[in-house]
């Protein structure tokens, strides 16, 4: 009788490749559910923050904020990783690989630039929430920070419009030193006109390119008219300055859309995918006479624009609150450990913002919850110092006596 042969085990390298393939399958399959779940949580966060602003009572405490922030960013990472895995698998189906890489590289540049301006999106959303809460001073402070430190944020125009509609002053006296000059704005709009003409040389996305050129021409014409009538004031110039980041975003998205279109032109048309189930971007090419859709590419320009204008401010607010809650927990722990005579002990009668200096315009370092016991080391301009570069308003403090505990 013949001896039974033992099955040949695959080498370790092959087993590792199978394992990595399974992980890739899981990430590709989890991409879309992660995206849907993330957007659901973002909607819940938005409703909670709006209700907080309208009614003045906190809905999400520090613990919930921490979990919200952690889960949302994990889901965002899973979604982007799944999209990258699917695109890597479809790479061999793309003929115009240079355009493929250019589109992804341009998306990477956009994401990098947005990551540097995330604080500007936080200022924009915080200013709007402060308007809902009936706090015009806080709104003006966030608008000031937006103009001074993030003048190229595309939400600047939206904030200015909301301020006007609600009858809140822009505080033009404080932001006037940071408004661009007429000459700088004129040069930008003339450059945009020249760029618009160059972009029209390619026929793809012709309607969007023509609209961009018309906006640039109207900007140049309006600047000339205002300058000929009277020297433009800071209030007029800030309106033109708010249009600059919108036009810049428009231009970047036009380049981005053209790069994606190149993949579909001529030899750049991708072959029909053998396994479309891996396309977490939700895009594939159909057979027959049906509409051809791109595969293996980053999201469309219109989706990216919606994400930047609507979703990113919410994510920025979530990240800002997450960082603030983490910093607040550290400050509360350090403040509680301070030992001092009873005469210097105070208790917070409301949630208090801890700032880096004795002024409302200084940076917010954290928030002390109501009932926190505090050691005051110094007072200046109705502000109490509770540590190095930590100041809180005196009006929210009461002396801590044997008959008044933190729970009171």
TrEMBL record:
Transmembrane segments: 20-47, 67-87, 99-118, 152-172, 184-201, 207-226, 238-259, 300-318
Biased composition, class Polar residues, residue ranges: 277-292
Region of interest (Disordered), residue spans: 273-292
Top-level taxon of the source organism: Bacteria
UniProt keywords, alphabetically: Membrane, Transmembrane, Transmembrane helix
Keyword Transmembrane among record annotations: yes
Protein name according to UniProt: SH3b domain-containing protein
Native species: Desulfosarcina widdelii
């Amino acid at each position: 009788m013949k001896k039974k042969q033992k099955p040949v085990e695959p080498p370790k390298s092959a087993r590792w490749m199978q394992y990595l393939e399974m992980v890739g399958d899981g990430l590709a399959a989890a991409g879309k559910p992660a995206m849907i779940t993330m957007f659901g949580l973002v909607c819940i966060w938005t409703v909670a923050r709006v209700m907080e602003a309208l009614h003045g009572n906190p809905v999400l405490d520090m613990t919930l904020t921490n979990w919200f922030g952690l889960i949302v960013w994990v889901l965002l990472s899973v979604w982007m990783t799944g999209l990258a895995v699917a695109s890597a698998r479809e790479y061999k189906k793309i003929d115009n690989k240079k355009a493929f890489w250019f589109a992804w590289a341009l998306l990477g540049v956009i994401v990098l630039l947005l990551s540097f301006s995330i604080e500007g999106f936080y200022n924009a959303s915080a200013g709007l929430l402060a308007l809902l809460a009936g706090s015009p001073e806080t709104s003006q402070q966030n608008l000031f920070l937006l103009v001074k430190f993030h003048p190229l944020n595309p939400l600047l125009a939206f904030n200015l419009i909301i301020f006007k509609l609600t009858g809140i002053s822009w505080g033009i006296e404080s932001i006037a030193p940071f408004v661009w000059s007429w000459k700088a704005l004129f040069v930008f709009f003339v450059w945009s006109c020249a760029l618009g003409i160059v972009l029209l040389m390619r026929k793809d996305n012709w309607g969007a390119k023509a609209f961009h050129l018309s906006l640039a021409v109207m900007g140049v014409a309006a600047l000339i008219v205002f300058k000929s009538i009277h020297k433009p004031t800071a209030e007029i110039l800030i309106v033109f300055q708010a249009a600059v980041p919108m036009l810049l975003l428009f231009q970047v998205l036009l380049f981005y859309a053209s790069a994606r279109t190149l993949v579909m032109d001529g030899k750049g048309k991708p072959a029909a995918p053998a396994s479309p189930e891996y396309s977490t971007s939700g895009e594939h090419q159909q057979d027959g006479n049906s509409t051809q859709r791109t595969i293996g590419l980053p999201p469309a320009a219109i989706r990216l624009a919606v994400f930047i204008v609507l979703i990113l401010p919410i994510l920025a607010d979530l990240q800002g609150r997450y960082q603030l809650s983490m910093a607040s927990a550290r400050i509360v722990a350090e403040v509680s450990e301070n030992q001092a005579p009873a005469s210097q002990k105070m208790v917070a009668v409301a949630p208090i913002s801890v700032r880096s200096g004795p002024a409302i315009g200084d940076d917010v370092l954290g928030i002390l919850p109501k009932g926190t016991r505090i050691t005051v080391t110094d007072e200046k301009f109705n502000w109490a110092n509770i540590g190095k570069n930590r100041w809180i308003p005196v009006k929210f403090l009461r002396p801590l006596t044997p008959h008044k505990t933190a729970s009171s």
